[in-house]
Amino acid sequence: MTRPTITPRKPPLGFEHVPRHWFAGLAVPTQISNGVNLLFPHGERFFVRAVYHFLDQIDDPELRAAVKGFGNQEGRHARAHEDYFDTLRAHGYEIDRFLKVYATIAGRMEKLSSPKLRLATTAAAEHFTAIMAEGAATEMPLDMVHPAMRELLLWHAAEELEHKSVAFDVLQKVDPSYALRVAGMVMATIMLSTWWAAATLTLLRQDGIGPLEALRRMREMRKAAVAAGVKTPKPIHQRVFGRGLREYFRRDFHPDQNDNYHLAGVLLARSEAAHKEAAAHVAH
Hints:
With 284 residues, the chain is mainly alpha-helical. The chain has helices at residues 27-52, 61-90, 96-112, 115-138, 147-162, 166-174, 178-206, 211-227, 236-248, 263-283.
């Protein structure tokens, strides 16, 4: 399977009209999505640093070009999500204390980790983001999302699919050790699951919703969807983490074994449609 051209695109702008609960008007799915959004800027800049550290060791011109495209895309993703943070602040959410703690602890762990482990962690995390990106095209009911946020999520997902194999290919060039790959996946799983849960709970608490109440609401939403005949995606621990671990621990694994590059075009077309819908909302 041939990796597509990695094309950094202009990021979506303008989230000032996004409502407080932009996912179907519901707090819990909104804050689950907001939780991972809070992780993106610092996380994606970490990914770029981890991969660029080994750029001088890449003599394949195609892979070098892919690394640079990866870095440009990830940098734009970070800036776009930071732009959305201003909307969260405008809605009264206190996010800066969380962001400071997250950046401080993650930064210390980065300094304590070897360059190869940072690269392996990035390759594993990119597999998780590729799974989420694929889900945005095939499973997630994003028609229930405010169009400005839908545009952001679909644009981001499309580019994640385009560069899904870059960090993994760099890791294979630098050190193809299976033990290193597994160590990176362990680190990525712990970091992503822990910080995503912490960010989500931080936001839900500000909506007056505790963990047990959030779980109760999620169960009720699933039951209502089933009763209405609406297909709902699997829970995150199955859809993202369970699948990601099963695939990544195969010794012969490569991201391109998942035939989903074509979904990037689908996601971009939907993102453009969402952009037009968002503009129409503002006009009215």
